[in-house]
């Protein structure tokens, strides 16, 4: 994970990688009411941050604006306060997120913000952690934002139990990072492989890679409640945000060999377990997830007519019994 935002030789900034730190090692001190999260419910990466905020009880300390869940052609994420569930930009009054990125880059002496790549992860992405005091983005990296929310705002958590909750405990960090490395390659990014394959060979390979990854996760989670150790960690959240979308979204993106709720009993129990933890369910919003995926620009090649499928009957509230595993 990068540790600092850098000004490129071409005078632009290609990503924000700063850190809120309690120890005073960065200009970003934790304070209640100082930081703001921009996100939306469609995106699994954004969901890492929205889960971090609610599971740590930081709703009062860190404000939140929910962007329009549909990613349109053109300049990207926009604010659509006229749509139910979507907010205006309550901090900067912008109409598109790109303006927040550009203004932040300019604050740092840059010409502006520049796309660092094309494709799913390129450019003006969510989530974004924004600092009102310095008037700029701190980070647009979901993995770093989740870690900051986990450890740097503990004095502002709603309850002592939320302050104590540690999703990245020092003793488990290397194991967590190892688990995340394979999950990212074999599941989190692999769910996009089948839909975007341009040859039969690529498709065949993408399907094998994804379902091998899911088989491995199933085996692991049939023996233990959580991905690492006996407690919930960030590795569970990162796996959960993909798995909870699987039967609703990715099956329609040619990941149809198996379903989580039908073919993977341990993964399905795991999804319900995490979904039912704290108030995580409040930030898993299927209406926005479905419309967001199926109406956004990246789905055009897969879903040219913009048809939004119905949510299958999945009972996320059903008992999972996994508390007996620890
Ligand atoms: N750097 C990002 C990547 C997040 C990401 O890929 N977000 C996607 C939505 S799922 C996005 O905002 N895409 C906008 C675009 O590609 O224009 C992270 O926080 O992990």
Automatic annotation (TrEMBL):
The record ties this protein, via SUPFAM superfamilies, to: GST C-terminal domain-like, Thioredoxin-like
**Record InterPro entries:** Glutathione-S-Trfase_C-like, Glutathione-S-Trfase_C_sf, Glutathione_S-Trfase_N, GST_Omega-like_C, GST_Omega/GSH, Thioredoxin-like_sf
PROSITE patterns reported in the protein's UniProt record: GST_CTER (PS50405)
The record ties this protein, via Gene3D superfamilies, to: 1.20.1050.10, Glutaredoxin
Q: Which GO terms describe its cellular component?
A: cytoplasm
Q: Which Pfam families match?
A: GST_C_2, GST_N_2
Query: Residues in domain GST C-terminal?
Result: 169-305
Q: Which GO terms describe its molecular function?
A: glutathione transferase activity
Domain of life where this protein originates: Eukaryota
Task: Please state what the protein is called.
Answer: GST C-terminal domain-containing protein
Q: What is the lineage of its organism?
A: Eukaryota, Metazoa, Spiralia, Lophotrochozoa, Bryozoa
